[in-house]
UniProtKB/TrEMBL annotation:
<dbReference type="GO" id="GO:0006780">
    <property type="term" value="P:uroporphyrinogen III biosynthetic process"/>
</dbReference>
<feature type="domain" description="Tetrapyrrole biosynthesis uroporphyrinogen III synthase">
    <location>
        <begin position="20"/>
        <end position="233"/>
    </location>
</feature>
<protein>
    <submittedName>
        <fullName>Uroporphyrinogen-III synthase</fullName>
    </submittedName>
</protein>
<dbReference type="InterPro" id="IPR039793">
    <property type="entry name" value="UROS/Hem4"/>
</dbReference>
<dbReference type="InterPro" id="IPR036108">
    <property type="entry name" value="4pyrrol_syn_uPrphyn_synt_sf"/>
</dbReference>
<dbReference type="InterPro" id="IPR003754">
    <property type="entry name" value="4pyrrol_synth_uPrphyn_synth"/>
</dbReference>
<dbReference type="GO" id="GO:0004852">
    <property type="term" value="F:uroporphyrinogen-III synthase activity"/>
</dbReference>
<dbReference type="Pfam" id="PF02602">
    <property type="entry name" value="HEM4"/>
</dbReference>
Length: 247
C-alpha cells in the first residue's frame, strides 16, 4: 500500500500508541500519532458485587497494580483486549460478549442479572448505555470511577494537518477522541477547516457510538469495522484510503 496514506491515530500515549504506529507502518501507511487521551487514576477500587464489569485494559492494569482481586465475583470484560489483560493479571474471565460494546455487554448479561448486584468499574466517560441497560434488566448497579480521561496538553497536530488537507485517514477509537480532536482544533481556531479536511479523507470509527458522536458534529464517517478492535479499524481505514493503481 502507498506511503501516501497519512493516518492520524489518537490512542493514549503509552504502549497503545506505540502498537498503533507499528500496525499502521506494517499496513504501509504513514502514522500520525496524536494522543487525545491521558489517564488520571482516582485510586478507587470496585465495591463487592455478584458481577464485576471491567471495560478497558487501563482499568485492569490499574486494579492489578493496586492488588485488587475479583474473588468470587463473575468477572465480565467488554472485549478481548480487556479480557487478555485480566488473564495476564492472573484473573479468571467468566464472560465476554460477542459484540464488544456497552449494548453488547448488556444483551449478554441481561438474562442473568435480575436481582443481582453488578459493580461497573471504568473511566469517568463510560457510556450510560451500560449502567442503564443493566438496571433495566433488574440489576442493582453500582459504578466506580477508576480513572479520568483528559486531553493531553499540546494535542492537536492532526487537526492542523486535517485543516491543511494533509491527512488521508483518521482513526477514532472513542467518542472522547472525537470531542478532544474538535476541542484541540477549536483552540487553534480551525474547527470548521479540520472538519472539512476530515470529510475529504477516510474517517474510521471503532463502533456505532463513536460514529454517532462524529456524525453529530458534522464529520462524515467512512468506515466502521465489523469487529470493534483497533486492528480491524486500522486495516479497514487504510485499505479504503489507499490509492488504487491500474497497470
Amino acid at each position: 500500500m502507498s506511503q501516501q496514506v497519512r493516518a492520524a491515530v489518537f490512542r493514549p500515549d503509552d504502549d497503545r500508541i506505540e502498537r498503533a504506529v507499528e500496525l499502521l507502518d506494517s499496513l504501509g501507511a504513514t502514522p500520525v500519532p496524536d494522543p487525545m487521551l491521558a489517564i488520571e487514576p482516582t485510586g478507587a477500587t470496585p465495591e463487592p458485587g455478584a458481577f464485576v464489569v471491567l471495560t478497558s485494559k487501563t482499568g485492569v492494569e490499574l486494579l492489578d497494580e493496586a492488588g485488587w482481586e475479583p474473588g468470587d465475583a463473575v468477572l465480565c470484560c467488554i472485549g478481548p483486549a480487556t479480557a487478555d489483560a485480566a488473564r495476564e493479571a492472573g484473573w479468571t474471565v467468566d464472560r465476554v460478549p460477542d459484540e464488544y460494546t456497552s449494548a453488547g455487554l448488556v444483551d449478554h448479561l441481561a438474562p442473568d442479572v435480575d436481582g443481582a448486584t453488578v459493580e461497573v468499574a471504568r473511566s469517568d466517560h463510560g457510556s450510560p448505555v451500560l449502567t442503564e441497560g443493566l438496571r433495566d434488566a433488574g440489576a442493582d448497579v453500582h459504578e466506580t470511577v477508576l480513572y479520568r480521561l483528559v486531553r493531553p496538553e499540546g494535542a492537536g497536530k492532526s487537526a492542523e494537518m486535517a485543516a491543511a488537507g494533509d491527512l488521508e485517514a483518521a482513526l477514532f477509537t472513542s467518542s472522547l477522541t472525537v470531542e478532544h480532536f474538535l476541542d484541540a482544533a477549536a483552540e487553534r481556531g480551525i474547527r470548521e477547516e479540520a472538519i472539512a479536511g476530515l470529510n475529504d479523507a477516510v474517517v474510521g470509527a471503532i463502533g456505532p457510538p463513536t460514529r454517532d458522536t462524529a456524525e453529530s458534529h458534522g464529520i462524515d464517517v467512512t468506515v466502521v469495522p465489523d469487529e470493534a478492535t483497533f486492528e480491524a479499524l486500522a486495516v479497514a481505514a487504510v485499505e479504503t484510503a489507499a490509492p488504487t493503481y491500474h497497470e
